[in-house]
Amino acid sequence: MVNPARRSDSASGSVRVALPLPLPQAFDYLADTGVVRPGSRVRVPFGRTHRVGVVIAADPPTTLAAEHLKPIEAVLDDTPLLDAELLANLCRAADYWCGAIGDVVFGALPLALREGRAVTDFAEECWRATIAGTSSRDAHTRRGGSAALLEILGDSTLSANELDSLLPGWRAAARRLATAGLIERTASSRDPARLRDGATPILTDEQADALATILAAGDGFRAYLLQGVTGSGKTEIYLRLTERALQQGRQALWLVPEIGLIPQALRRLRARFDARIAVLHSNLAEGDRARAWLDARAGDAAIVLGTRSAVFTPLPHPGLIVVDEEHDASYKQQEGFRYHARDFALLRAQSLGVPIVLGSATPSLETMANVEAGRYTRLRLHRRVHARPPSPVHVLDLRGLKLEHGLSPALLEALDACIARGEQALVFKNRRGYAPTLLCHACGWHASCPHCEKPLTLYRGRRQLLCHHCGHSQRAPGACPNCGTVALVPQGQGTERLEEALGARYPDIPVLRVDRDSTRRRGAFDTLLDKLADGQPAILVGTQMLAKGHDLPGLTTVAIVGVDEGLHSVDFHAGERLAQLIVQVAGRAGRADKPGAVWLQTHEPEHPLLATLLRGGYDAAAALLTGERLASGLPPFAHLALLRAECRQREALEGFMAAARDALEPLDRDGPRDAHISVNGPIAAPMPLRAGRHRAQLLLESPQRSLLRKALTDWLPALHALPQPRGLRWSIDVDPVDLY
Ligand code: ADP
Ligand code: ZN
Ligand code: ZN
User: Fold this and answer.
1) All residues at 6 or more sequence positions from 264 whose CB lies less than 8 Å from its CB, including other chains
2) 378: number of CA atoms within 13 Å, CB side?
């Protein structure tokens, strides 16, 4: 720790400090700017307390006179925790997404480092097999966790962080093996990253072309869209580019949209490289997370693999950024600081001067527009590596048909045939629970949430009614609370009901449900997927969790039921999401050595979006949707910012929103705003009541991003200056990915 700067002698300047508070501003303190560098943590007096802050600027251009500033109390980092690039981009991001600077800077730090703990507290923990462990017979007689751990370690050194992701519960095995002298704890392996022998396939022509294009462009910043269906070999391209970065002694950052995809990516990386990999996601113990982050910051981790917030990892030797499944809405943070990890990654790639590859089978319309505009280079992988043609899609017109639990006779026949052939099927339904509504057949009463006024979902297994919007739950009544008749009927189907119906139809094979309810426990998803690994006949019933890049090699039949809700949503993103979902789910069929087939049930086979998608594929659907966006002046042809507010008192909410609207008017100095920015609202949110809070919103829209930003810069201080009614919460969402 550096000596505290004292006001009298060494305080020769001022620093601007971000504090972990939801306030728009940072605070200035006296400090010796020869010692205190931007990016370092400091302890400062704040009101009557003391706080840890992060210096974001030395000698800011405007500040209070020195006699009004207090000196900092201590400098906590000798070398800045955040380097200049990351700090500068965090400040830009705070500005762009209207985040409070303290929230943004502290949000980028692992929790354990937000306090004053020293960097040196986080000693690395690595494990490797001893000579006895790699050679002895004893090793081969071990079973279960011990055998798995020895196998995973092989001849390399792995960090505790990597082991956490590869083998949940590994510590018990580590204790046993360490006692037996078969493995040992070591300092980190600082050997340079190395390619493992014999693991690299020969590229297909398409892959070779795509790779050659990227390599030919050199090491500088360039953005690529790598568009190819699941199984077309995108990951192999990421691996080759990572190989080049590692050969140059540089780091690669890989982002995936959800935690469940990490083990798969980690296995692929480990199989190819003997290198330190820092794994970062929200399910780590805080110490491990800090350790992985510091590992990357020190340049020891050659590869950083993680979910959304891993985009805030320092990269002192940057070489490559990969954003897999770039279209996935999970990259957008939906509360607090509402950044978009893909867009932040692009910002960083640009300032770091490295290539960035966005991969997807179903790119977002924004990314496709950037390709059109010439900002990104598109590379296509049209064919699957293993030469499987895409599975045919059969549309099942439901009109007038008699359905069994929402399943049509033709679909049931297809499932029968699939099971009879000894294959696996997937039934996709994007609704959890047993039924989305519980209705009284006698009087028309239906169960609705007292706090949201929306139907409650029935969970029959738990005999519960649950609100998916606020989490309210109550016991499912046996008789109608309104008329007393015992005539309550579940309406519609959720995954639980399909699981029950299919389980009854196919009693001899496993019917496995994959949704947020069935995979809540850590590792539960992997356990479920393991049950499919033997290739025996089985049926998976699941929600959109199954649409996300998981390897499901044994599936041949995919049934998509109940997509019609998505055709009529008020949210302008719904069409894009639906097209992505259908293509992603359909892409699960027939990956390995057996042809697949996709069955899509709908009441609206002629709906333009469905018809276009089925006839022309994702590109045609995207073109249709892009045309609609253009016609209605929506992104990517306009830029949006959404003010959301909620409050238990409707009058207070309405008063605040009206004042927020009025606060826009005086900003109209440079001529009529209407010409450039349109203001919609205030109006009630699409969900006007949630968890007992009334909700309203105001949408700003402009064809020019710069104008929108200018308006926001002027408006934000005005919003903060408004009287804030008790219990009212508001937030600004720039480039919202949904309007709820
Ligand atoms: P994607 O990321 O597009 O889903 P992957 O890179 O995972 O595709 O490739 C799909 C499968 O094909 C993987 O099992 C991968 O190991 C394999 N694969 C990829 N490229 C090749 C290749 N050139 N030769 C042989 N197998 C390949
Ligand atoms: Zn009734
Ligand atoms: Zn509710």
Assistant:
1) 549, 550, 551
2) 19
Q: Does domain 639-734 have CATH number 3.30.70.600?
A: yes
4-119 shares its CATH topology with 194-381? no
Mean pLDDT of 517-538: 76
Class of 194-381 in CATH: alpha beta
Question: Does 601 sit in the ligand 1 pocket, CB within 6 Å?
Answer: no
Distance 691 CA to ligand 1 centre (A): 46
Domain residue extents for the chain:
4-119, 126-186, 194-381, 393-431+493-628, 639-734
Q: Which atom of ligand 1 is nearest to the CA of 204?
A: 23
In this model, does residue 568 exceed pLDDT 50? yes
Q: What is the pLDDT of residues 380-408, one digit of tens each?
A: 998 888 756 777 888 899 888 888 888 99
- CB distance 272 to ligand 1 below 6 Å: no
CATH architecture label of 4-119: 3-Layer(aba) Sandwich (3.40)
Q: Is 587 in the pocket of ligand 1 (CB under 6 A)?
A: no
702 lines ligand 1 (CB under 6 A): no
Handedness of CA 292, 190, 263, 153 (dihedral sign): negative
Q: Which ligand is nearest to the CA of 238?
A: 1
pLDDT tens digits along 54-67: 999 998 887 788 88
Candidate of 200, 235, 270, 386 to mutate for ligand 1, largest count of ligand atoms within 8 Å of Cβ: 235
Mean pLDDT of 358-385: 95
CATH number of 393-431+493-628: 3.40.50.300
Q: Could you tell me the sign of the dihedral formed by the alpha carbons of 371, 598, 546, 574, in that order?
A: positive
pLDDT band of 549, cuts 50, 70, 90: low
CB neighbours (10 Å) of residue 524? Answer: 12
Residue minimizing CA distance to atom 15 of ligand 1: 233
- Is 385 a pocket residue for ligand 1 (Cβ < 6 Å)? yes
Any residues with CB less than 8 A from the CB of 588 and at least 6 apart, and which? 230, 426, 546, 547, 552, 555, 558
